[in-house]
Amino acid sequence: MAPLAVHIKHAGKVHDVELDPDLPPTAFKEAVYQVTGVPIDRMKVMVKGGVLKDDTDWKKVAPKAGQTFMVIGAAGELPKPPEKPVVFLEDMNESEMAQVLAMPVGLRNLGNTCYMNATVQAMRAIPELRIALGTSFPLDVLPKALRDLYNSMSQTTESVVPASFLNVLRQVVPQFSELDRSKAGMMSGYAQQDAEECWSQITNALKEVPGIDDSGCSVSGKKFVDQFMTGEMRRELKCDEDENEPPTVSTERVLKIECNISNTTNYMLTGIMDALNQKVEKNSSFLMREAIYSQTSRMSRLPSYLTVHVVRFAWRRDIGKKAKIMRKVKFATEFDALDIVTPELAQKLTPVSRRLKEIEKERTERRKVRKRTKVAQSSAPAPSASRSDMNVDEPQAAPTAAPGELEEEDVCRSRELAELEGLVDPSLKEDFGCSVTGLYDLVGVSGLFYFPCRFLSGTCPAIVTHKGAQADAGHYMGFVKKSVFHGGNTVNGSASRPEKGFDEDDEDWYKFDDDKVSIFPKEKLGTIDGGGGLVEVSALNCADIFSGRR
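-> structure tokens emitted (550 positions)
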């Protein structure tokens, strides 16, 4: 049967549509939807005998040309075409797939190169480093090779072969070309190296990379490492044997702080304080002999990314080689550095640090309330239709906010950011790249490096660990917090939100075992704190990276 020209009446207006009796009623409803905007799931088409259903037989309705049908239902917004055309995964190239999937890629092991792979993955947890490398021209040979490697890793979904970077690293630092003397002939190859040494050499090579401003642009006169990774240590030496000898004070620039491990060290902070408070023996100009001095060290500048080196490898004179300290030392995922700074710096950091802790508690409560509200709304029964819904000429009331409803999260965060910025000490605000809160989040593990957190940017975690009991063998792995790749970090400190689809409560990590990348649950972080477990956080080969909080 040929299509019939019929009329439909909705909200006092008459529209002309075609009705094809050979097609099911859903096709007619779709035509009605196109002209009225009433969604099919809440549309009622009145026909002889009641309401048109999806399985109604047109022969029983017996429609005629020119017939008018009454349509009941509230019209919604008409569908809009997508801003960008839909592209399927099979039609994307490697670069486009890498952006969509957002899964970080691994690095192939080229023969005892796990120390390098783990370190490179951990340092990738610093978003400002990638920005500085991408905006600085020209670059020295090793920074340029690192930039090219990071670019390759962000444009593919397959593991990357870091052959070019490895060749440059061995040319710049010949010690990484050392051969394994324990094997000979066809079995010989390159020796295992220290991840902490690799981190130190790469960091030294980055010292000439220009710094950046709060907009991410390269600036002259400043260096990236000085801005974001270098702290200032104030050391005071006081003689224990002569009260009349005045103390001597010195300052030095440091790229990391150490966590010494003794027979009584159970926690990372204890090891750090042991390294900052030491007894040293030196010649006294007052006593004219060797004397015992108390050395007290405190940070007078905290960088945005603080590296804590857990010293697990020590030289044993009795066996004439490096040995690994297997003692279990618990490390925190959050670190308050106010205990290790000078009183002057602590006074500057305390106001914003105290308020930031309060804000994070408030954010946690808001997330809980929003989740409970979402669950309650999803489980609530749909409101039943009333007789007023049948009146198509009656205007629909605008939805009103429920009493006590929370503000939009972006509004809250903008207000919090403005409040925190008002509490920042002016001298710290001028020193772009320093920590303005003294609060750090663990973002990466590579050996054990802690990179500090700035409240203006998101968390940025990374860890490098050493598996095995021997210092010159074993296997290195890197761990980076998922929020580094999905947390919406920015340089300028705006109140950024995590990317769409990423849960802020997701505290899991990515585990980088060379070219194998997997999810590492937060609950398992306790298995990499040493003590003879499957994975050991190595001494000189390990570092935790702490990054400042939002």
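The chain has a mean pLDDT of 81.
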